[in-house]
Amino acid sequence: MSERTGEPAIRAKGVRVSRGGREVLHGLDLEVAAGSVIGLMGPSGCGKTTLMRSIVGVQRIDSGELTVLGRSPSDPAVRHEIGYVTQAVSVYGDLSVRANAAYFAALQGSSRADADEAIATVGLADLADRPVDRLSGGQASRASLACALVGLPRLLVLDEPTVGLDPVTREDIWTHLRSLAEQGVTLLVSSHVMDEAARCDSVLLMREGDLLAHLTPAELLERAGTTNAEDAFLTLIREGGER
Ligand SMILES: Nc1ncnc2c1ncn2[C@@H]1O[C@H](COP(=O)(O)OP(=O)(O)OP(=O)(O)O)[C@@H](O)[C@H]1O
């Protein structure tokens, strides 16, 4: 287990990826510590989703080495240890939250009790029997998250889990994510909301298919000489463009 050996949860060396015949990741090197919350940030189109897809094993890599939980991401043994929540709500609208989570549990070989635990983790226990179609947008996002949590993956990759959510629900989701990290889960979370960087243990900053920096929120502010995460982000992205 990577938590015990201190082995990074994710390690990339010279990872290159092309999409539609064009290289979109240009030789990424990175290491992500197990049991931490890592923010993945950068302007639209910089390659965040492509990197996440590579990490969860659904994106072909041209060259370089990528290991996730000590194995190749395409290794079936590692697949069930990874949860991936895309931007689209990926649950069945006509099924209840519980039926959705139970379905994911069945696919994973997990129990109904695991499904109920995941529902409780995202704070939907009271709404477990309601069809997802009759939930609010934020509740439906949390239902998606619950399905990814079934069986408690060791790595959870979340593509903008708080997009379009109100501040209270965002706060709620971050509380759940932090408690998962405390249980040893590694979380890679993409976001466009710069103040969410402050909630992460460290932040991967990308620009045009390159990794500009991997630093703590405090280092991010210090390096940019500001107290505002949004300004720090802009400064570092612009600096990156001038290199
Ligand atoms: N299916 C595809 N075919 C060809 N090119 C693609 C495909 N999907 C993405 N790309 C290109 O790959 C690059 C990286 O896209 P990616 O979706 O990884 O960016 P992103 O940082 O996640 O963007 P956003 O923040 O807008 O979601 C972009 O230039 C994009 O146009």
From TrEMBL:
Cross-referenced SMART domains, in alphabetical order?
A: AAA (SM00382)
Which Pfam families does the annotation name? ABC_tran (PF00005)
Gene3D superfamilies the record matches: P-loop containing nucleotide triphosphate hydrolases
Q: Kindly indicate whether the keyword Transmembrane belongs to this entry.
A: no
The UniProt keyword set, sorted, is: ATP-binding, Nucleotide-binding
Q: Which GO terms describe its molecular function?
A: ATP binding; ATP hydrolysis activity
Q: Which domain of life is it from?
A: Bacteria
- The ABC transporter domain extends over 10-233
What is the name of the protein in this document? Answer: ABC-2 type transport system ATP-binding protein
